[in-house]
Hints:
The chain is of the alpha/beta class and 346 residues long. The protein has one domain: Aldolase class I (TIM Barrel). The chain contains 11 helices and 12 strands. The protein has helices at 60-72, 91-98, 118-127, 141-148, 154-166, 187-194, 223-233, 297-302, 307-320, 325-328, 341-344, and strands at residues 23-27, 77-81, 106-111, 131-135, 173-178, 200-205, 236-238, 249-253, 259-263, 276-279, 284-286, 295-296. A 12-stranded mixed beta sheet has the order 7-8-9-6-5-4-3-2-1-10-11-12. Helix 1 (60-72) links the parallel strand 1 and strand 2 (77-81).
Amino acid sequence: MKEPEQVQSLPCVKDARGRLLRDLRISVTDRCNFRCRYCMPREVFDENYTFLPHSSLLTFEEITRISRAFAAFGGHKLRLTGGEPLLRRDLEILIDMLVRIPGIDDIAMTTNGSLLTVERARSLRDAGLTRVSVSLDALDDDIFMAMNDVQVPVTRVLSAIEAAQTVGLSPVKVNMVVRRGFNEGQILPMAAHFRGTEQVLRLIEYMDVGNSNGWRMDDVISAEQMLALIGQHWPLRPLSAQISGEVARRYAYVDGMGEIGIIASVTQPFCSGCSRIRLTSDGQLFTCLFGDQDWDMRERVRRGDADEELVNFLTQIWGKRSDHYSEVRLAITPQRNKIEMSRIGG
């Protein structure tokens, strides 16, 4: 096997708004076994929907080459997403390849939990996975299944959370997307369930990622409203950010029973500290979760560009980056044709 090229690490390069690149989110598949209405509504992603053919997907070797260029650029955190990443066969092989890249010190994964058993969690950890985030939008089975539009019960996801915790993929972050008229009544039950545990509940404002979920501002339960609701029952105090560019605002229960996070992209934008770039499963780079412009890395990898050329291309993309969609979303008319969440990975 050919040894990878040694690419000299670059000095920190900032984008047009002074932000550093630190995080690469890698979608490994555009397929998912859920049909969550805020991401892959069945009316759009039905049995006739055409997913990417296998030949279009980046191979593990191609993902590793791009990640190596990212690390040479100064990035150090990777997150595997989808679709549902556990639908990608032999994911442990990819993780083992990624963990060997100099400079990469954190490899996490976001999953719906439906396929995460103790055995699978252990094999992912042994391959080098560091942390896991699990999506769970309700504790009530009827509400949960209405939101994900499949017959997967809450108990399966709770078992996945416990499996990840058991093998040391912790602390597990539990992501709850809150949408008015669907699951706002589950905020308190979710907070009560995860209080006093090692897991961290993160409440996420309903966002307009893509164009197929029918987003309206009226559907958003704001961070302020969620905090006020929880605070009426269990007082909270703000915590300082653990790392620069952290998207979740952290709050501790005053009684010492753990913490929660709030991701408020809509009402409290955090564009100014965004350090993320996103890679789709077919090799397109996006510099914003709400992006409408992509850059083709797959073509460059498959035509044989050297690692140094990939780094230089990444430098050009990031250096020109000026995205701040969440700060201006309500002023954009008409709305842009944004990439769907199932391709960009949330």
